[in-house]
Amino acid sequence: MQFFDDSLHPENQDKVVITVAPYGPEWMPADFPEDIPVTMDEQVQKAVDCYEAGATVLHLHVRELDGKGSKRLSKFNELIAGVRAAVPDMIIQVGGSISFAPEGDGEAALWLSDDTRHMLAELTPKPDQVTIAINTTQMNIMELLYPEYLRGTSLENPAYQAAYSEMTVPAGPAWVEEHLRRLQAAGIQPHFQLTGIHALETVERLVRKGVYKGPLNLTWIGIGGGFDGPNPFNFMHFVHRAPDGCTLTAESLLKNVLPFNMMAMAIGLHPRCGIEDTLIDQHGRRMSSVQQIRQCVRVAHELGREVANGQEARQIYRIGVQYPDVESTLIANGMAPNRRNGQKNVPQRAVA
C-alpha cells in the first residue's frame, strides 16, 4: 500500500468496516457466561447486538447446547439462516476452521479434514464469505496466552493447553486451489487470513496464475505461535507489501487487540474485535464483544472516520464481485500487470 501527503486524512479513507468474532470457540461458556451465547436464539441475538453496536462483518462459529464448538454443518445452516433473517445487511463470514476446539480433555485441537472444510461451499443459505488460510502453519495459540490471563478459565486446564499448543492449520497448495475453485463456483467470497508476508506472496501467485479472480479482502493475524508476532514492524511491513486495491483488517489477541485496531484505523484500514480475540480490556477486566465494538466506534469517530453500515461494507468488500480474467483481477486489486513476453527491466511479475 502507498501513502502520500494526505493519506491519513479521514476524508481520503474508506469508512471503517468493523469485524466482530463473538463466538470464541476456544472458550467455554463458564469462562464468560455473560457474553458467550449457547442456545441458537442466543447466538442469533448476539449477531443482532453486535450489528446494532456498529459491526458489519460477523465472523461466525456455532456452539452446541453443551457449550462446545459445533462441527455440524447443519448447525451452521441454522445459524446463518437466523442471522440472515434478523440482520440481512450484515456480512456473514464463516470461520474456515468450522471449530478447532478439542472434543474433550486430552484430545487434540484440530482443524477438520480437507473434504469437510470444502463442504463450506455448500452451506445453505450460503454465507457472504468463508475465511481461508494459506499455507500449512503452526497455530500455537498458547504461546502468548500468559498464565495470569487464563486463571479461572477452561484454558487453565493443562490438557487443553497441550492440545492448543500443538494445533496446526492444514492449508496445502492442492487444498487451497480446490477450495478457492469451489468457493468461487458457489459465489462465496474468500476472506484471506494471512500469517505473514510468505502467505501474502502465495496469494499473489494464485492471482497471477488465474486461480483466484476476485477482490482481495485480507486479514493480517498477529498472534505468534507460528503466525507473525504482535509487533508493529511486522504489521507495517505487511501493510507496505499489501496491494493498493485490497481491504486489510488487523487481528491480534488479548491486550494487543486495541493497539493494533487503533493503528489500523489511524491509517485507513479496518479493525477486528470480539471475544475470540480477547476476553479482557487493557486493565485485565472482562470486556464483552459489544463493548469492544463500541470502543472501535469511539476510536473511529475520534479519528474522524465514519463507520460503514451494512450496505456500505458490502460495497467496500465488493461482495458478489468476480472478475473475468487475470488482468482484470490485477487492475481491480491495484497490482502491477503480468510481464509480457520479451519485456525486461520492468517491475511486473511474470506468470509462474
Descriptive report:
This protein is of the alpha/beta class and 352 residues long. It has one domain: Aldolase class I (TIM Barrel). The chain contains twelve helices and ten strands. The chain has helices at residues 40-53, 73-86, 114-118, 147-150, 158-165, 173-186, 197-208, 232-241, 257-266, 289-302, 310-317, 326-332; strands at 19-20, 57-60, 91-94, 129-133, 137-138, 168-169, 189-194, 217-221, 247-251, 270-273. The strands form two sheets. The protein has an eight-stranded parallel beta barrel with strand order 1-2-3-4-7-8-9-10, surrounded by eight helices. Helix 1 (40-53) packs across helix 2 (73-86). The longest helix is centred in the N-terminal third of the chain and has 14 residues, at 40-53. The radius of gyration is 19 Å and the shape is globular. It starts with 18 loop residues before the first strand and ends in a 20-residue tail after the last helix.
How many separate domains? 1
Spatial extent as radius of gyration: 19 Å
Number of helices: 12
**What is CATH's topology name?**
TIM Barrel
Low-pLDDT residue spans: none
Question: From N to C, what is the helix and strand string?
Answer: EHEHEHEEHHEHEHEHEHEHHH
The profile of the biggest β sheet is: 8 strands, parallel, barrel
Going by CATH, the homologous superfamily would be: Aldolase class I
How much of the residues is beta strand, in percent? 5-15%
Widest β-sheet, arrangement of strands = 1-2-3-4-7-8-9-10
Overall average residue pLDDT? 94
Q: Considering DSSP H and I runs of 4 or more, what fraction of the residues is helical?
A: 25-40%
GO molecular function: 3-keto-5-aminohexanoate cleavage activity; metal ion binding
Cofactor: Zn(2+)
Keywords: Metal-binding, Transferase, Zinc
InterPro entries: Aldolase_TIM (IPR013785), BKACE (IPR008567)
